[in-house]
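pinned: reference chain
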Amino acid sequence: MGDSDLADFTAQAIGRAQVVIMLVRRAAILWVLLILLPGGAAWADGLTAPSGVSLFDPARHMRVSEVRPGMTGYGLTVFSGSKIEKFNVEVLSVLKDFNPKYDVVLIRCKGDYLEHTGSIAGMSGSPVYLKDDQGRYRMIGAFAYGWPLTKDPVAGVQPIEYMLALPAERMSPTTAQSTSDAGPSAGTEATPAAGRMSWSFKDAGLLARPGHRSFGSDFNHAEPAAAPADSSQSLLGDGQALPRLQPLTTPLMVSGLSPQLIAALGPRFKAMGLTLLEAGGGSSQGGDVKLEPGSVLAVPLLTGDADMTAIGTCTEVIGDRMWGFGHPFNNEGSISLPMGSGQIQGVIANLETSFKLGTMSSASGTLTTDMAVGVAGRVGPLPRTVPIDFRISYAGSEPARSYHFDSALNPKFTPLIAGAAFAAAITGTSDLPQYNTVDYDLSLEFANGQTLDMQNRAVNAVTTDLFAEIGIPMTAAAENPFERVMLRRIKGDIHISPVAHGAQLIDVTVPKDKYRPGDTLKAFATYKPLWGEEGILPIEMDLPRDLPKGTYRLIISDSGRYVQDEQQMQPFRFTAESVGDVFAVLKDLAAIRDDALYVRLVCQPDGVAIGRTALQRLPSSRRQILMGAGRSATTAFVSSMVKVIPTQDVMSGAAEFAITIDTSPKATLGGPHPGNPENQAPNPKADQPKSPAPAAADTPAH
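pinned: its structure tokens
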């Protein structure tokens, strides 16, 4: 190549480079302009803005800094069916820092409808538009706050600029539960922890067992649990309650549940900001309803043979993204709940707080975010739900009934919802009889492949106690500090009998109070069934041949006292250091039946547990070595021998004795030793059986 050719080639290369630089500059300018454009305009044609790009559109949305008292406008909501209607508003003021770093716009609503009803629960999320200086109506935010017991329809508006900042995607799995169905660990989430962590079921409040109901208990007359203190009230100087501006209650439409069950569940849901209201089930009348500003926003928590659907209002839709409520649903951050459109059956004017009655029309997407300023989600695929199937059979000729439900998947809601479905199936045809026996065989399948089988018998059962049995395992699996494991499925068979198979332990006799190692300890438990004659249950326990001499406690009790003693003597059994331990504890608890007597011989404080592995009756030298090894997971405990004696009845009561083990070859063994069950007088007629006793069966001691 000559000099002239080289010069021409260089000139051409420089020219091409200048063109590329010019194109890059133009692209950069266009990209900057694109970012500066309003969100709604920049991402037209249904496209969604990428992460970090504001969706606030000054041509459509108004910032709270632009609001002045006296501005007027309108709101959109549904009062009947699916028709979106207008109501007029006027700005009273802006409440600065009503929530930390968040303002609230105070408005007065105008119009005959709201003048009569005041703020309406179910209006949460209704978009409010104000007229600006150019005569344009722009969205300021969502109707979200109200006062109970007010004469005027005054409400608070959550600014839309805060709501549009809610993330569209679910947050990092380190801060939120995983409910995806993809991969082998679907529905599980590992929680990293520094070093070994020990988690106690007792400290977490997960060891409560339903107490033994008295023979005269009646669910129809049971008092519902006390409602939590109302945070909306403050006190005046004279002690009178003063209403406080608060987020509007979210009405939870309920069908398929008995009035008694709704009354019992009400306080539990109220603590989560939801008010249970009896209403009809979901309906598709009128066809699918589009989610748009002012339309009904429905969140179905339970569907099937019972229905529980939360009702609010959609605030804004941009592309496939949706915002609503204007206040938290349960303020959980990242969530995965089904959502859809709905219809309003009517508005009930109430002196305290008026409310909407509504139903679900069709599911259309997933709520992904639940934070202080509202909820956000995406229109599209629905999240996974939990199928629940129960088969209920009754004593007599009545045929068995099958019930199917689908529950939303949520660490806080699912245990309560599944328990409600359990109770709804049990009371599907009628409330439980005053005197009853409920035998249940349940299987809980979890996302990590674990299955928990629960078989037990309850006498004079109260449904709220029964669904605590099903809720505790789900809470432990989802709320432990090691790994969030969500439920995958529940199925089970329940048999209901109008006879109370329960018995009171009224007297226990131990013929001897002195034994040699290797002897068979014998006792006789006198029990009294409801409406039945007294019976005597013979008890035998083989003592170890190497049992040291000394005085020992003998406890014969029901399951409640047994669990209490286990907590005190062997707390390591209810402590976990991994998610595997969590399920091991759950399986141990599920194995404890109420229709049994528990015979415990309390030995010496000679046990050492390493984690959940118990080493009983250790020599003192070995015990000292293990305890001095410096392992944090090493715990000393009191050894026990336990024998479980199955019975036909759910037993209630306990008795305690002191017995002596004597290794002397010339020891004189003691005579009869009667014992008194707790809070019961001794029965002097307990020498002879009055009726056939339930069969006793040996089970391995632990």
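why pinned: The chain has a mean pLDDT of 79. Residues 386 and 655 are 44 Å apart (CA to CA).
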